[in-house]
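Thread amino acids onto this structure.
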C-alpha cells in the first residue's frame, strides 16, 4: 500500500522540498488557522471560567428578594407605602410554592451601629443575621479558622459571631488566634467562633470579607426585630425554572401584603438563576463564533493547499502519465496525491496545534502562579476533546484539500502526458 512504501515518502519529501517558499507559505496558512482556533478556544474558556468565578459557590438556581415602597395605590392603600416581609411570609411560601426547595430569611443593617471593638482597635462593618443553611446551601464561604454559625447557636440565641477575613486582619492582625475571643459590637459582647473569606472574585468578595455574621435569632432578640424579615434568599428545585419560581413568589407576596398585582417595583431582588442562564447563553454564542471564525481561517489555508496541489499535479503530468503507462491504476495515483496533501496539512496543522497549546498553557501558568493577576480572566485551557477535534479537522482538511487535485490527476491519459512532455 502507498502509505507504507518508503519510495513514495521520498517522492513526497522531494516534491515538498522542490519549492520551499511555496510549501512554507502554503503550510503557514494551515498552521495559522489551527493555531488561532486553539488559541481562541483556550482564551474563550479563560474568560468563561473568570466570569463563572465571580459567582463563587453561589447556588446557580437561587434568587434574592427584599421589600421596597409601593409605587401604585391598591385596595385603599396609597402609593409610597412601606411594608416588611415577615416569618409568616416564609411559612406561606414554603406551604404554597412547591418549586421552592429552600428559603433563608436574613436580617442586615445597623440598628444600633455595627462598630466592632477589640483591644482598642475598632472598625465599622456590615452585620448580617443569618441561618447556617444560607452559608451551606446558598452562598458557601471558606472557613479559615473555627466554624460557621450552627443550629444550636440559632436555638439558644447565642451571642457568637463569625467574622470576615478583612475584619479579622483589621482587629486581630494576621498572627493572633481569634477563636473564643470577646469582641464588642455596639454595646454587646460576642464570642468569635470563626473567620471566613469569600469564594467570589469581584466586589462582592470585598463586601463579604468586610462582614460580621451573627445568628438570626440573636439579631432578632438583641435589636427587637420581632418577626420582620428584611431579605429572603431562596433556591428553586432543579427541575423548575428559577425565573418562573421567582415570579410566583413575588405574586404570592404581593397578594399577601395587598400590593397592586402590576406593581413590579414594590418587591426588588436579584435572580441568580436568570443571570447564570444569560451567561451560559452568551458563552455558548461566543464559543460558536470562535469555532466559525477558527474553521473559516483554517478553510482559507485549505484552499491554499488545494491550489498548491493543483499546481503540483500540473507540474507532474508526465510523471503520472508514465505511471499510468506502466500499469498504475487511477486509484493509486489518487491515493498518492491525497497522501501528499494530508502530509503537508497534518505537519502544518500539528505544529499549529502544539504552538496554540504552548501559548495557552504558558498563560495558564502565569495566571496560576500570580505572575499575571486578573480577576476577570480564569485559567485558559485546551482539553483533550478540543485537541482531538482539532486533529480530526486537520486530517479531514488534508483529504478535502487534496480531493479535487487527486481527481484531476486520475483523469490524465498516458498519451496526453507524453504529448505534454514533448511540448
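Threaded sequence (423 positions):
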Amino acid at each position: 500500500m502507498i502509505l507504507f512504501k518508503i519510495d513514495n515518502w521520498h517522492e513526497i519529501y522531494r516534491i515538498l522540498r522542490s519549492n520551499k517558499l511555496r510549501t512554507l507559505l502554503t503550510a503557514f496558512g494551515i498552521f495559522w488557522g489551527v493555531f488561532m482556533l486553539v488559541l481562541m478556544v483556550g482564551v474563550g474558556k479563560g474568560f468563561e471560567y473568570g466570569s463563572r468565578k465571580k459567582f463563587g459557590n453561589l447556588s446557580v438556581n437561587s434568587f434574592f428578594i427584599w421589600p421596597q415602597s409601593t409605587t401604585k395605590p391598591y385596595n385603599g392603600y396609597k402609593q409610597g407605602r412601606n411594608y416588611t416581609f415577615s416569618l409568616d411570609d416564609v411559612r406561606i411560601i414554603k406551604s404554597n410554592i412547591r418549586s421552592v426547595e429552600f428559603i433563608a430569611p436574613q436580617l442586615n443593617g445597623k440598628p444600633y451601629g455595627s462598630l466592632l471593638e477589640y483591644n482598642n482597635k475598632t472598625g465599622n462593618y456590615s452585620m448580617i443575621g443569618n441561618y447556617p443553611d444560607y452559608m451551606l446551601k446558598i452562598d458557601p464561604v471558606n472557613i479559615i479558622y473555627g466554624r460557621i454559625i450552627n443550629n444550636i447557636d440559632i436555638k439558644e440565641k447565642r451571642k457568637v459571631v463569625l467574622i470576615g477575613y478583612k475584619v479579622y486582619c483589621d482587629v486581630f492582625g494576621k498572627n493572633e488566634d481569634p477563636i473564643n475571643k470577646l469582641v464588642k459590637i455596639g454595646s454587646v459582647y460576642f464570642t468569635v467562633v470563626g473567620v471566613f473569606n469569600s469564594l467570589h472574585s469581584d466586589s462582592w468578595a470585598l463586601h463579604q470579607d468586610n462582614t460580621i455574621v451573627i445568628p438570626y435569632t440573636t439579631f432578632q432578640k438583641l435589636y427587637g426585630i420581632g418577626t420582620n424579615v428584611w431579605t429572603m434568599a431562596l433556591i428553586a428545585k432543579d427541575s423548575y425554572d428559577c425565573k418562573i419560581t421567582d415570579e410566583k413568589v413575588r405574586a404570592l407576596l404581593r397578594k399577601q401584603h395587598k400590593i397592586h398585582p402590576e406593581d413590579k417595583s414594590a418587591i426588588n431582588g436579584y435572580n441568580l438563576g436568570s443571570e447564570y442562564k444569560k451567561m451560559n447563553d452568551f458563552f455558548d454564542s461566543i464559543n460558536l463564533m470562535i469555532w466559525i471564525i477558527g474553521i473559516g481561517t483554517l478553510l482559507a489555508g485549505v484552499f491554499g493547499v488545494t491550489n498548491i496541489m493543483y499546481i503540483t499535479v500540473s507540474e507532474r503530468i508526465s510523471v503520472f502519465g508514465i505511471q499510468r503507462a506502466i500499469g498504475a491504476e487511477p486509484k493509486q495515483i489518487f491515493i498518492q496525491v491525497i497522501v501528499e496533501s494530508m502530509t503537508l496539512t497534518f505537519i502544518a496543522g500539528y505544529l499549529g496545534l502544539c504552538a496554540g497549546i504552548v501559548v495557552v498553557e504558558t498563560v495558564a501558568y502565569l495566571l496560576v502562579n500570580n505572575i499575571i493577576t486578573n480577576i476577570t480572566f480564569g485559567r485558559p485551557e485546551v482539553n483533550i476533546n478540543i485537541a482531538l477535534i482539532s486533529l480530526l479537522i486537520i486530517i479531514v482538511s488534508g483529504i478535502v484539500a487534496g480531493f479535487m487535485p487527486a481527481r484531476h490527476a486520475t483523469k490524465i491519459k498516458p498519451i496526453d502526458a507524453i504529448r505534454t512532455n514533448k511540448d
